[in-house]
């Protein structure tokens, strides 16, 4: 059987269409504030794509750069955005400098505007399966599962990576009693011994590691489905950055049943999910059903 490529593009296209429809039907003027502390070239690339997509879709993306690495200064900024009725989404771009406590900052973002699901209240809602903004990359993975009708019920799904933004929320979502849940989930991380012992058992393998081509064909089960959230820069060709996933795509391609490409897979869905959250938040703020 030919391997199916699970492109993120049609998934993103559908989400963008829904977002545009919400904006047009309700004449919304949503604003997303992206706070950047310090400098990081990898996140600048992501932010550029948020600005470009925001402009196309009608979401005003406002960048607030701060060279201050004091948690108190950042707290004051966030309080102001929380109380600004024009702002419907706030994200603080990572990585943060060591002097800034990520959890302290997360707690300050009002749950109504917490469009990347970092406030512990949002995390609690997610854990319990209540309505909330799911961290965008985790939701992007779920959207791919939904779009391509990947069956999760009763399947053994192995998630490699346990970060608060991808691995843990994905693990939680797959456990819920929903059409994209009811899976038996194993989570692996850097301290897992004999990683391949687990990845080889996966009907669906989800990776969010940050290690280029970590997963080779000897480590996967015949006919498995692979969703690779990793984005790893391995160099430049003709002045353009070259990115690969956590899975060795060429090596695993023939052995699996379906696989997301990198780039063009999970990453291409994440920004559309974020902008969709900003618009949903705006609708709620205006009490539109
Ligand atoms: P992270 O916070 O650094 O977490 C990485 C996870 O991988 C950790 O749980 C770590 O284990 C685990 N890990 C590291 N080396 C491992 C190994 N050799 N074997 C097994 N597990 C290992 O990273 P993240 O923020 O979740 O991002 C993960 C990847 O996704 C990165 O490539 C990032 O660029 C990409 N990403 C993609 C999107 C998108 O839209 N597609 C968005 C955000 C990030 P420990 O917990 O033990 O350290």
Explain what you see.
The protein is of the alpha/beta class and 289 residues long. The protein has two domains: 91 residues, 3-Layer(aba) Sandwich (Rossmann fold); 131 residues, Rossmann fold (3-Layer(aba) Sandwich). It is 39% helix and 18% strand. The strands form three sheets. A six-stranded parallel β-sheet has the order 1-11-8-7-5-6. Strands 3-2-4 form a three-stranded parallel β-sheet, sandwiched between helices. α7 links the parallel β5 and β6. 41% of the residues are buried. It binds NADP nicotinamide-adenine-dinucleotide phosphate (NAP). NADP nicotinamide-adenine-dinucleotide phosphate binds next to α6 and α10.
Quick overview of this protein structure:
By secondary structure, the protein is α/β, with parallel strands linked by helices. The chain contains 10 helices and 11 strands.
Properties at a glance:
289 residues; alpha/beta; Rossmann fold; six-stranded parallel β-sheet; three-stranded parallel β-sheet; 39% helix; 18% strand; binds NADP nicotinamide-adenine-dinucleotide phosphate
Range of strand content: 15-25%
Distance between the termini: 45 Å
Largest sheet data: 6 strands, parallel
Proportion of residues in helical segments = 25-40%
Overall number of structural domains: 2
| Helix/sheet category | alpha/beta
Global outline: globular
Present as ligands are: NADP nicotinamide-adenine-dinucleotide phosphate
- CATH evolutionary superfamily of the largest domain: NAD(P)-binding Rossmann-like Domain
CATH class of the largest domain: Alpha Beta
Main β-sheet, spatial strand arrangement:
1-11-8-7-5-6
Which regions have little confidence, pLDDT < 50, spanning 5+ residues? Answer: none
Give the number of DSSP strands.
Answer: 11
Mean pLDDT, nearest integer? 95
CATH architecture group name of the largest domain: 3-Layer(aba) Sandwich
- Elements, N to C (H/E): EHEHEHEHHHEHEHEEEEHEH
Radius of gyration: 19 Å
What's the helix count?
10
CATH topology of the largest domain: Rossmann fold
């Amino acid at each position: 059987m030919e391997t199916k490529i699970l492109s993120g593009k049609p998934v993103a296209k559908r989400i963008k269409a829904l977002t545009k429809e919400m904006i047009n039907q309700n004449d919304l003027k949503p604003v997303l504030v992206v706070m950047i502390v310090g400098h990081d070239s990898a996140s600048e690339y992501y932010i550029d794509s948020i600005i470009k997509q925001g402009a196309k879709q009608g979401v005003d993306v406002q960048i607030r750069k701060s060279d201050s690495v004091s948690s108190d200064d950042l707290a004051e900024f966030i309080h102001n955005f929380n109380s600004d009725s024009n702002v419907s989404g706030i994200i603080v771009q990572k990585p943060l400098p060591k002097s800034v406590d990520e959890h302290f900052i997360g707690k300050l973002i009002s749950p109504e505007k917490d469009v990347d699901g970092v406030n512990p209240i949002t995390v609690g809602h997610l854990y319990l399966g209540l309505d909330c903004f799911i961290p965008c990359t985790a939701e992007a993975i779920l959207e791919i599962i939904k779009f391509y009708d990947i069956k999760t019920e009763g399947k053994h799904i192995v998630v490699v990576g346990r970060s608060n933004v991808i691995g843990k929320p994905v693990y939680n979502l797959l456990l819920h009693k929903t059409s994209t849940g009811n899976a038996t989930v194993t989570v692996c991380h850097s301290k897992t011994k004999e990683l391949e012992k687990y990845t080889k058992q996966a009907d669906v393998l989800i990776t969010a590691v940050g290690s280029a081509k970590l997963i080779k064909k000897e480590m996967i089960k015949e006919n498995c489905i692979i969703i690779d959230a990793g984005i790893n820069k391995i160099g430049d060709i003709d002045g353009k950055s070259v990115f690969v996933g956590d899975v060795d795509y060429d090596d695993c391609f023939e052995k699996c049943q379906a696989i997301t490409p990198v780039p063009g897979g999970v990453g291409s869905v994440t920004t559309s999910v974020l902008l969709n959250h900003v618009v949903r938040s705006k609708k709620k703020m205006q009490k539109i059903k």
